[in-house]
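Entry for the shared binder. Reason: the reviewer on the internal report wants the predicted structure included alongside the sequence.
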Amino acid sequence: MMARFRVEYLMEAALLGIFMISACVFVVLLDYPASPVRLAVPDADLRRLLIGLAMGTTAVTLIYSPWGMQSGAHFNPATTLTFFRLGKVRRRDALGYIGAQFAGAAAGVGVAWAVLGPRLADPATHFAATVPGATGVAAAFFAEVVISFLLMSVILRVSNHGRFARYTGLCAGIMVALFITLEGPWSGMSMNPARTLGSALFARDWTALWIYFVAPPAGMLAAAELYLRQRGPGAVFCAKLHHQNRKRCIFCEARRPVLTEPFRASRHSSPPMARSHARPHTLEENEG
């Protein structure tokens, strides 16, 4: 049965791999000492803003890409784990996604290194590694929890809103851009265990690696628990960040047709296509 959904696992690996290639390219472009762009933009804060905009745009592009619309565009083990906790991802799919995400992150950095060579290994670029900043380990841990909590809170509230669900990917991309710009000096802005490990493997830098394995899931799971207490389990429709498309959904286990009529909903309504469900899926049903 696992082979049935293998293509989505490969899509998740490719999505995070592309994200990591993009991260490495833009870090080299903007932070490598001999880069003409760095020479033209000497201000470090402005360069970080440009990296944030580039990576936010990358995230939005991947979420709304054909692969992102089919896999759900998690490309983050913490996101997959959170939707598993919410009962929207089957156990075998969660394992498949998480394994693919770690493999994709490492492959992406490896491809970038093969192309960029010493420019990516330079101390100024350091394989785009995420490590605690000058404020220390405790501050980095706290910051990772906070930004992960905020990201998942926005994803859950927007993706489950009938009118705004289709903008979930855009909101996620904006938050990535803001976090890189504003939070980056604290922790390097990861929110993603696979993303951090992918860079650490090549940089051989294990500085406070535990932060990036503990803080992002903790923050996202806390956001999910708060959402469940406020809205109830029936308020979570699906694990996809973008469900308003004709791509198959392995989480709903059926491809839902797109509604042709405008969806008019209150702020507590389920998103488009949810009308075809008599009731929300549960983890027990998904495991069956």
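Summary line for the report: Residues 2-235 form a domain with the Glycerol uptake facilitator protein fold (CATH 1.20.1080.10).
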